[in-house]
DNA sequence: TTGTTTCAAACAAACGTTTAATTAATTCAA
DNA sequence: TTGAATTAATTAAACGTTTGTTTGAAACAA
């Protein structure tokens, strides 16, 4: 079982990274099984054999994507939880902004993770991804329980509160087409780049969590 | 483009239904592209050629699943919205219970819909599924806006409030393994049948939406 | 030289689908 | 009710593609 949370840095040439980036977007859009190595090679403008030459197999390419991209997404939540200058509510606000930023700036990677969570092939990968989510949930749970102990927060369900936070973001970010239709369906509206949308999402999440958490 | 919301009743023999049921569970677990017709035929105990004999193709089998299962999931939200005996908050509570029941009692079908939402092959199906979600969102949006007009509810973001409702449920229901780990990770805990878990989810959602919606 | 990268070609396996033959079920005049 | 005629259901085998992967030679770099 591999563990990309503790992976060591890997030197990666431009071509390898280009394949990883192209593969991530293609897998996110069409699904892992729905995209062939030939599709990928064509789209990336490299020879078919290069994928196996660099990564060994299609499965290992998937692992390489997650390993490579996950290193940009670590640590932030722990910093927030450990910051003694912030009270519990400020920490939760920071968590909200951190999450929204992370997901909005890496929509493809995020879709990829959720595809893997939804389907249950490749058990190692499935478990590894679950571990990330569980770890983040426990961090946020710690923040919420601290707030409850200090009587700043009401007694809520910490795990389901985290589910509400992540779930709300996912609901609008996992399908761009649905997001556009939900959000008044204006033409050429791109939720991933529209700054108004991002602000709207953060505002809503803060409203939800403030009203849920705060003692009147 | 097909439209299963207005489909006419179709007689279906036992064997056809058995294939549909088996396929739904297999597709939900392994993904549509991740499950071959041979896998399906073996699991369902029928000859390989029967799938194409009954449904024409693998794609049409997928459509048949959605057509067949969607007819059990219609109408309830509209009934709630139109019920003049309920005030806005009571309607929202009814929506919560209806949603939780629906998803908990059809987890495979629900996973299938979200897989299709996440990946973007088979455009007709993608659009058709989005239409279901959009329609439901508009119904709930109507309830929320009615509550706001009657000053029972605060001014909230109706679409994102719906995203919070659906997203929270999805977050715990889309991956059983993650749900188990989030929810204290007790052995042999099955979120789909555990009545305590269902009650816990409904309680949390009511707490979230009451505190968000109600004017102090 | 030596080792690395690139490529067209080929590989076997798996895929969705079709075929053609066989069996089961239904129809219907006698 | 019977029994031939017709339709429906079932099967093993094969079809042509596409799949992930490997090969071996060529091009490039050190």
Question: What would you note in describing this structure?
Answer:
The structure is a homodimer of 216-residue chains. By secondary structure, the first copy, chain A, is an all-alpha fold. Chain A has eleven helices and no strands. Chain A has helices spanning 14-30, 37-44, 48-55, 58-70, 76-82, 88-105, 107-118, 123-149, 158-173, 176-182, 195-213. The longest helix of chain A has 27 residues, at 123-149. The model of chain A is unreliable at 4-10 (pLDDT under 50). The interface between A and B is large, with 51 and 51 residues. Chain A binds a DNA duplex (30 and 30 nucleotides) through helix 3.
Short summary of the structure?
Two copies of one chain form a homodimer. Chain A has 216 residues and is an all-alpha fold.
Number of strands of chain A: 0
Note the main sheet of chain A.
Answer: none
Low-pLDDT residue intervals, each spanning 5 or more residues of chain A: 4-10
Structural class by secondary-structure content of chain A: mainly alpha
- Please tell me how large the radius of gyration of chain A is: 19 Å
Defining traits:
homodimer, 11 helices, globular, DNA-binding
């Amino acid at each position: 079982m591999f563990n990309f949370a503790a992976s060591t840095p890997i030197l990666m040439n431009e071509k390898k990274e280009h394949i990883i980036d192209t593969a991530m977007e293609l897998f996110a859009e069409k699904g892992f099984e729905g995209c062939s190595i030939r599709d990928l090679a064509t789209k990336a403008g490299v020879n078919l054999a290069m994928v196996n030459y660099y990564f060994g197999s299609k499965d290992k390419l998937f692992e390489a994507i997650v390993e490579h991209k996950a290193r940009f997404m670590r640590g932030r939540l722990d910093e927030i939880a450990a910051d003694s200058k912030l009270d519990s509510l400020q920490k939760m606000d920071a968590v909200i902004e951190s999450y929204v930023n992370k997901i909005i700036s890496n929509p493809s990677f995020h879709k990829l993770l959720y595809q893997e969570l939804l389907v249950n092939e490749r058990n190692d990968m499935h478990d590894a991804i679950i571990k990330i989510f569980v770890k983040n949930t426990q961090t946020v749970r710690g923040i919420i329980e601290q707030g409850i102990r200090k009587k700043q927060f009401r007694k809520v369900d910490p795990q389901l509160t985290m589910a509400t936070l992540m779930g709300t973001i996912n609901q609008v970010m996992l399908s761009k087409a649905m997001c556009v239709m939900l959000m008044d369906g204006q033409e050429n509206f791109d939720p991933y780049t529209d700054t108004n949308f991002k602000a709207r999402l953060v505002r809503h999440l803060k409203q939800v969590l403030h009203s849920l958490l705060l003692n009147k």
